[in-house]
Design goal:
Blueprint lengths: L1 H41 L15 H7 L1 H11 L3 E5 L5 E5 L2 H8 L7 H4 L3 H4 L8 H11 L5 H4 L2 H21 L4 E2 L1 H17 L8 H22 L7 H6 L1 H29 L1 H9 L5 H7 L10 H32 L1 H15 L7 H4 L3 H13 L5 E5 L4 E2 L5 E2 L4 E5 H5 L18 H6 L18 H18 E5 L7 E3 L3 E3 L4 E6 L7
Helix pairs in contact: 2-3, 9-10, 9-22, 10-16, 11-13, 13-16, 16-17, 16-19, 16-22, 17-19
The structure holds protoporphyrin IX containing FE.
The site of protoporphyrin IX containing FE has 23 residues, from helix 16 and helix 22.
């Protein structure tokens, strides 16, 4: 009798649970439909390519390559056009400077639909924060990117670059092309670890440093795969998959490392002797700056905030420069004449010195123009997203209501033929001061613009110049025509088949 009653109430309970799940699912579906309707209505004034009711533009993008497809749409709709990723996620994809200015000169929040994927790893650091807390953090962290703080990093970056270039000497002797992307990634992560924690992969105590290094590299790849796999978008489903569990394990390694380094540094700051040691070091690292940061009322960053900001730097600061350096070297291989001119300029600036100092960087004007031209054609961050906090009106009178989603397609903007004549041609003179003055200030956006621009851009430009100058001094770069890179927009701009180049060593004494 009792068993029968129990099984009856259990089956009733399961019916109730099923009913509840269906009701919640139904409500969620209705919410998504209403949102779709809102987004579609907001964008109906903007013509665009035909869209599939279920897949939106996702299939077309997958079949023909996201970047080429979007560039062809940019030629057809040179201001903006709707872009649907599946049935419920619709953006106005903008690619014209006045349109970009209307949105990016304001401080609208990031589009949570996409940036929330980052939370498990980098927490609520500068990249994803909004409102007064973002403003407070941005103010506290800005001094960390001051010229004087960045100055000593030139030596740190050179050291990591030389380690990579030494390795390339051996590879160059094999007289075969090889994929430079991996080595560049290893080098930028090593130098960023040194600038953030004071120690790179080699110095952190063998297993701890290298497992962190591996975890960060793993996380970047897993995150890219998650974003491009529709089935992984729901958190609940994702954490149940082997992919999701691997992501969680890598997050744990990264967080444990960051927490431990913070704990150790805090403990060291309590100890007078250690404190003196830190002060007598040749430079402060980002962690020192973060630990010392306080607002006018003396309020410091909490431990969770510290971890989020360190993890954000590690995420934002190495994949981006890896992409920038690799595509730059590809552009040099593709354009030997510009490669030669850059090398000559570096030799002229350094004279008989064999190391780079921060003051040299400002004198490398041709190299800087070539870096900017490679950022134009191959922007390391190809697309960024916002959600409007208030309505926006564009220059042609069209407008969008609050809540609309915006995608700034940096890759598309930089190849918009209405903005850049002969957009596919590599021409560094586009960045001569006369030509820059004549151009719209929102035409070139590798670091985004406005209040939410890249806080690390000066660091990134220094790193780009140091690494590329040293590389050009030691090697000549040439294409492997059988393995040309295919750009793909992951979180950063990568190449589907790696970045295979031939390297010819310029002989002893060419760089060091
Ligand atoms: C070539 C290298 C780099 C490029 C092209 C680049 C590009 C960008 C872009 C486009 C944004 C805006 C992102 C968005 O709106 O979603 C951004 C934001 C950011 N970047 Fe960079 N970045 C680079 C290097 C770095 C480095 C080296 C660091 C730090 C060490 C860094 C730290 C950040 C942070 C913290 C933000 C968020 C800023 C905020 O919202 O206040 N970036 N970056």
């Amino acid at each position: 009798m009792v068993t029968a009653l129990l099984s009856l109430s259990l089956s009733r309970l399961s019916l109730w649970a099923l009913g509840l799940i269906l009701a919640v699912g139904f409500l969620k579906f209705i919410r998504l439909l209403l949102r779709r309707q809102m987004l579609a209505r907001a964008m109906d004034k903007f013509p665009g390519p035909p869209t599939h009711w279920l897949f939106g533009h996702a299939l077309e993008i997958q079949q023909t390559g996201a970047l080429d497809k979007v560039v062809s749409w940019v030629h057809q709709f040179p201001y903006a056009h709707p872009l649907w990723l599946g049935p419920f996620l619709g953006f106005l994809n903008i690619c014209e400077p006045e349109y970009v200015k209307a949105v990016y000169s304001r401080g609208d929040p990031k589009a949570a639909d996409l940036y929330d994927f980052f939370l498990q790893w980098i927490g609520r650091g500068l990249l994803v924060l909004d409102g007064p807390k973002w403003f407070q953090h941005r103010k506290l962290l800005t001094p960390g990117f001051h010229y004087d703080v960045l100055k000593p990093y030139v030596a740190v970056i050179s050291e990591s670059a030389h380690a990579m270039l030494d390795k390339w000497e051996e590879k160059a002797r094999e007289d075969k092309s090889f994929d430079i992307f991996r080595d560049v990634g290893h080098m930028t992560l090593d130098s960023l670890m040194k600038c953030t924690f004071g120690k790179g992969n080699s110095g952190l105590g063998h297993s701890r440093g290298s497992s962190y290094h591996l975890a960060i590299r793993d996380l970047s790849v897993l995150m890219q795969e998650r974003l491009s796999t529709f089935q992984y978008h729901n958190d609940f489903i994702y954490w149940l998959t082997p992919h999701g569990r691997r992501f969680l394990r890598a997050c744990q390694v990264a967080h444990d490392h960051t927490d431990q380094v913070i704990r150790e540094r805090k403990a060291a700051l309590q100890d007078k002797k250690e404190q003196e040691k830190i002060q007598s070091r040749r430079h402060l690292d980002f962690l020192d700056i973060l630990l010392g940061a306080q607002d006018k009322d003396g309020v410091k960053l909490s431990d969770a905030d510290l971890r989020a900001e360190v993890d954000t730097f590690m995420f934002e600061g190495h994949d981006t420069t890896t992409s920038g350096i690799s595509w730059f070297l590809y552009c040099m291989a593709l354009n030997p004449e510009h490669q030669r001119r850059c090398r000559e300029e570096v030799l002229e600036v350094l004279g008989d010195r064999n190391s780079i100092q921060v003051d040299d960087l400002g004198k490398m004007t041709y190299l800087t123009m070539c870096i900017k031209e490679s950022f134009r054609l191959y922007p390391p961050v190809p697309q960024v997203y916002r959600q409007l906090s208030k309505p926006v009106s564009f220059v042609d009178g069209r407008s969008l209501p609050a809540g609309s989603l915006i995608s700034l397609h940096i890759y598309g903007l930089h190849r918009n033929s209405a903005v850049w004549p002969d957009p596919e041609v590599f021409d560094p003179l586009r960045f001569s001061s006369e030509n820059v003055c004549r151009r719209h200030p929102f035409a070139f956006m590798p670091f985004s613009a406005g209040p939410r621009n890249c806080i690390g851009q000066q660091f990134a430009m220094n790193e780009m110049k140091v690494v590329t100058a040293l590389s050009l001094l030691r090697f000549e770069f040439a294409l492997d025509p059988s393995k040309l890179p295919i750009p793909v927009p992951h979180l950063t701009l990568r190449s589907e088949n790696g970045m295979h180049l031939y390297l010819k060593s310029l002989g002893p004494g060419s760089g060091k």
